[in-house]
């Protein structure tokens, strides 16, 4: 993977592992993921959330933390992880589907204002909640956008929960895409630095990546991370995209946005410098067990 030699985001280079674009920048800062988000408001076909200690992928944590536990864990992490710079909430469910993430961010921001706060969301609730995220001190935002064509999106996320009702198919897809794009545009106005995660799904959206990148760039995103599908759930039969498919997708996206290439597909409770150090055991000790 060719690392860039110039930073795309000079303010974040070496200070945020997922918004750094040089090899040195990726290796400098650590992040702490706090698994405080219990549930999700959409139903992606590839998603399989689980509580265990072994699987290295998004959607997995050893256990859920309450906001109280999360604040305590941050205090301990600051003593254990020397280069801790970013506190992120990325699951195991969606951080904006409940109040736990925003409450956790506000409390951490009040106690340790120098930490960069980062959130990763499916974007359904972004228009409604992005102002609260800004008020809680969050500055870096990732929105997972897997398609901008409702017909394609309906195959990725066949149903959503919206205003206490279940919405299906193309109607659900339209709502999700509209909210994602409106939320990104609002976040850009509020000054967030915005990255898009796009799961590369063979035969479903692999021909559509350029269109996704173009559309989210117009909405205000600055970077895109193409994440090869981890074949799970109802898309387990598709297999992982191969090297050529990944390369083609990155090239298509790269026409519109800076492409992030160092993603480690982190667990929802990962602690350390992505791909380099792992402090999960030190931080949680025997407390880290599935309950
Ligand atoms: Fe976490 Fe995500 Fe923030 Fe990074 S991870 S919430 S932006 S602090 Fe990073 Fe991990 Fe890839 Fe995510 S390497 S899965 S892109
Ligand atoms: Fe799973 Fe994330 Fe999709 Fe929710 S948004 S169903 S947690 S992959």
TrEMBL record:
Gene3D superfamilies in UniProt: Aldolase class I
PROSITE patterns listed in its UniProt record: MOAA_NIFB_PQQE (PS01305), RADICAL_SAM (PS51918)
Pathway membership, UniProt: Cofactor biosynthesis; Fe-Mo cofactor biosynthesis
Cleavable signal peptide: none
GO terms for biological process, alphabetical: molybdopterin cofactor biosynthetic process
One annotated GO molecular function: lyase activity
Keywords, ordered alphabetically: 4Fe-4S, Iron, Iron-sulfur, Lyase, Metal-binding, Nitrogen fixation, S-adenosyl-L-methionine
Top-level division of the source organism's lineage: Bacteria
InterPro entries: Aldolase_TIM, Elp3/MiaA/NifB-like_rSAM, MoaA_NifB_PqqE_Fe-S-bd_CS, rSAM, rSAM_sf
Cofactor(s) of this protein: [4Fe-4S] cluster
Domain Radical SAM core: 26-267
Function recorded in the entry: Involved in the biosynthesis of the iron-molybdenum cofactor (FeMo-co or M-cluster) found in the dinitrogenase enzyme of the nitrogenase complex in nitrogen-fixing microorganisms. NifB catalyzes the crucial step of radical SAM-dependent carbide insertion that occurs concomitant with the insertion of a 9th sulfur and the rearrangement/coupling of two [4Fe-4S] clusters into a [8Fe-9S-C] cluster, the precursor to the M-cluster.
Family matches, as PANTHER family: FEMO COFACTOR BIOSYNTHESIS PROTEIN NIFB, FEMO COFACTOR BIOSYNTHESIS PROTEIN NIFB-RELATED
Similarity section: Belongs to the radical SAM superfamily. NifB family.
Protein name per the record: FeMo cofactor biosynthesis protein NifB
